[in-house]
Write a structure and sequence with these properties.
alpha/beta; 4-stranded antiparallel sheet; globular; 15 helices; 6-stranded mixed sheet
């Protein structure tokens, strides 16, 4: 797989001696949903902002598509990287269409192309262009404004999108809906997304891989299922709230909580443990769960991760 973003011994030091990021070696693949998570001050937002040079690196090398970020024209670099903040920062006196069009206009797209792109993006997130394109941000709910923040970052069709705790200010219902929308959107557009959060449930739900940081260093990188089932040390175990009891629960509990639809798959008995299922899912996409000789449902990596993550306390 093509490596889009590569950190090689990257460090960030501030004049007061603070070492925000230490010897970071990290590769983010093309089309990957990559989540950075950790306690406050761990370096996750600094890591994100070094990608588009909002924060300059102090040492090491950071490349995008093999090219050092220092070799890019700063404006061209940022135009080619979408950026979504917690503070939505829509321009209040501009219409929704004008907000979305900011970067395409800077890139001198034609008026017709911009108009088509605005309508396409609004439709992509379930907002009728005829209704919303001429509204002002103040006329939208918080969740709708954040949808505009997301599509504005996609307006010029960037390869990479950075998202810095974009949903943390929203109420739980709006947040969960936007998480679902983002997953659906990513299935369609397949961008390389680097997403910062402090919420382990969100990380587990969204990430293809999760990078857990502490004190400016990477503690563990892996898929949600891998990190949940094989925490690297006590810090990871404590942070994600993993308890061995969950791995010893029967897979019938997973089927009951998060049913998956499937017609076929390797067979597993309903009283087998979640840990046993995770081992089998290293080689299988789907397991069919049987009880008393009858199929009662299916489980996948995703449903097990949802099951494990449901009890996470951060």
């Amino acid at each position: 797989m093509k490596k889009v973003i590569q950190f090689d011994q990257v460090e960030k030091r501030y004049p007061d001696g603070t070492q925000a990021v230490q010897k970071l070696d990290l590769t983010i693949e093309k089309g990957e949903f990559f989540v950075l998570i950790g306690p406050s001050g761990c370096g996750k937002t600094t890591t994100l902002k070094m990608i588009n040079r909002l924060i300059p690196i102090s040492d090491g090398t950071l490349r995008i598509d093999g090219k050092k970020i220092s070799e890019f024209d700063i404006h061209e670099l940022r135009w080619n990287i979408g950026y979504v903040l917690q503070q939505i920062a829509l321009f209040p006196h501009m219409t929704i269409a004008e907000n979305i069009a900011v970067v395409p206009e800077m890139r001198k797209w034609s008026r017709e192309k911009i108009s088509r792109r605005v309508d396409e993006l609004l439709e992509m997130v379930g907002l009728d262009p005829a209704v919303y394109r001429n509204r002002k941000p103040s006329e939208l709910s918080g969740g709708q404004q954040q949808r505009i923040g997301v599509v504005r970052a996609l307006a010029a069709d960037p390869e990479v999108v950075l998202m810095d705790e974009p949903f943390s200010a929203l109420d739980p219902i709006s947040r969960e809906k936007l998480q679902d929308d983002l997953l659906e959107l990513q299935r369609k557009i397949k961008k390389t997304i680097v997403f910062v959060t402090h919420d382990m449930k969100e990380a587990i739900k969204l990430g293809d891989r999760i990078c857990l940081m502490k004190d400016g260093r990477v503690v563990q990188i892996g898929t949600p299922a891998h990190i949940m089932s094989q925490p690297a040390n006590e810090f990871v175990e404590s942070f994600i709230g993993t308890h061995s009891e969950k791995e010893n629960r029967p897979v019938r509990d997973v089927v009951a909580a998060f049913p998956a639809k499937a017609a076929e798959g390797r067979r597993i008995e309903s009283m087998e443990t979640v840990a046993a299922a995770l081992s089998l899912l290293a080689e299988e996409d789907t397991l069919m769960v049987y009880e008393n000789g009858q199929a009662i449902g299916a489980i996948t990596h995703r449903t097990i991760v949802q099951f494990l993550g449901r009890e996470v306390q951060v």
